[in-house]
Amino acid sequence: MSASQTERRQGGFKLTQENIVFFIALLLFIGFSVLLPGFFDTSNLLSLVQNVAILGILGIGMGIVVIGRGIDLAMVSTMALSTAWTVALINRGFGTAEAIGLGLAFAAAVGIIMGVLVAYVEIPAIFATLAMSTVIYGFGRLALVDLDVIYLPDNAIWLRSISNSFLGVPLPVIWFSVLAIVAYLFLRFTKWGRYFYAIGDNRAAARITGIPVRPMTVIQYLISSMIAFGAGLITASLLASVNIRVAQSTMVYDVILVVVLGGIGLSGGKGGVRNILVGTILIGILLNGMTILDMPFTMQNIVKGTVLLIAIIVDSLANPRDEQTAQQGDI
Amino acid sequence: MMTAPLIELRDVSKDYRGVYAVRNVNFTLNKGEIHALLGENGAGKSTLTKMIAGVTQPSDGQILLDGKPVSFQRPAEALQNGIAMVFQETSLVPSMTVAQNLYLGDEKLFNRLRGLYIAAQQFLSSLNFNVDPWANVSTLGAAQKQLVEIARAVRQKSRVIIFDEPTATLTPEEKHYFFSLVDRLRKDGVSIVFISHALEEALAISDRITILRDGELVASDVTSKFDRDGIIRAMVGRSLSNELYGRKRSDADARPPGARVLSVENLSMGSMVRNTSFSIYAGQVTGLFGLIGSGRTETAKIIAGVIKRNIFHGGELRFGERSVRYREPRPAMRDGIVYVTEDRKAEGFFETMSIAENIQMGLLASGLQSSNVVTQTEAREVTAEWSKLLQIRAINPNARIVELSGGNQQKVVIAKSLVQKPKLVIFDEPTRGVDVGAIAEIHKVIQDLADSGLAVMVISSYLPEIMVLSDRILVYRMGRVVEEFTPGRATEEKIMYAAVH
What we know:
heterodimer, A: two-stranded antiparallel sheet, 15 helices, B: alpha/beta, 3 domains, 6-stranded mixed beta sheet, ATP-binding (chain B), transport (chain B), nucleotide-binding (chain B)
């Protein structure tokens, strides 16, 4: 091993995509704080975090699936339709708990169907979930809800309260933090969490090692769908309404952006909750700054896309694929 | 030599993370000669030739072509300069036909297939190779694929052709055609590098012989100066290698069979496994020899639940007293059958993980871990224990597995399986791509397992390995066990004869 490699390892600091993105976020934060009046302001910073909390929560769900080398393109559809049904049921006179239970059951059913399609029917995740996304939207619009926008009734106090503040901190931020901690502990310290990494890293090896690959894949989609339902409830509470047309928007790509930007490779087996946090923070700062700058929506998309490209390019320059360790076998 | 050599290697070295595969080798290849390159598994023959063919680049030293230094970054560059290599592992496009593969990369903008097939047919017949140019490569057996590879290299009218163990999968008749082809090529002035395990072949057809051992050149001279014993002495050299394959086991050495652990009755799967029957006993090593493509790996995978046998007329598998049909490896592992794969990169280890995490994953899957919380402490303890048992050498247990040498990677894969406390261990080519030192250690592990009363099955296509490890030798051909030998009765010739005819 050459001296420079040893040095890099012992220094404990490596130019990973995570660190690069974190630096970009830090630079942006300092830049905006100096240049933009009103950015470095408690109320603005709180709203910044609150605005990305939903994205962050969805990002954690997506991250868990991506670590297992899958992808859940139906997350936003699941989120919109399951909560829309819950709210519609409340409007029809169901109790809040029953409505939430049914909504959660719907999300869980969607997750299990997707998981079975991917794990047992062996359809590539990208196609299975893309198709499911349309099916969920169509089915929900046909059978579950009548309108595109459903308002939360005034008497659903309990549901409204989940987006209040606690000691000045908006509750969605707290939910995001709690979920992040739970997900971190789950991925790091439970058997299932470790299985997800193994499956994402090398599915064939995981199978031969005796890991229940197929049930685990189903559980991944189950988790992501249930997290989507949670994110949907918080959104509904924040906006006092559910707009199911969000299922047709590009929001799911923002979720993937958060995951990939933070450094969870789509090839699976890499990254963790920290990467999602870093990605979420960068997107939050970007979106907030661009809103203060009053940048048009199309321009914002260009900026988001460019930032992702830069992060990936810098990562591939800083960590080139190592041909010597990538190959083995006959020497 | 009167004429300047066509290719000259000066003090060439190649290291993978400090481990030398080839060290300070000087090698020359003259025009129109057949140069045999001999050495044990892992001696560096493949690496040396891959550097000539531009597949890898030397980390030190110089390669000269026609007296001018060259540095090929890609195989295509070497090919442009007239150097072609026929690889051990075939590098054909499986979804294309034989003819398309032969002319791959040389097609005109508008490719007329009819002309292509006619040309391919004529070309293959001119070589006496009986391969259908219309056949899809994926439908061919290993031997026919090898023939297509050879034909492709010949067609490119290269000045130098490197054959990496071309005869391993060929039948005697095909070998005969191959050797006459090589002879013809030599007369046309083509230089040939010929890597082989078969010493008689090298002695019969080569003009010069170079022998490598542990990455270093030990002998290089004209063929007439060598005989079989001399070559073996040069190849084996030190005592370790003698210890490895030198000992001949007698029937008295063989461990007696214990209880019958597994019995395979009339097992069938597609066209790869055909009505095979045999038994595996506790407390001994059962060696399974067969040529590549004879269905050994498939049989092992059926036993371990990696693939499924036919539903109808698939035969029966009895593990202990029970009749079993595993649809997944997990229930097989839980019952005590583990399979150590032949292709560790594709299905053996988790490359983003450390040594400790890899071994721990085996433990987690087996359900034998001490608590429900996955801790680094337990991973470290287990790793320390198994590193000592298997002598896994790494800077620290948190080193990523891709940074290890092939031998250490193999040991990690073995540890990952053994940590699951199996009753039957199936090793598929346990020493493929493993250095000599590690081979001895892995062999010792296998023997120790059998001594401790486990049933062990070893699949290998390397005859000396089978001979030195097995208490019973089963020979596979065309998807079934065709012959059984005791160690005392077995000779290399007898086993090979059973595997081919």
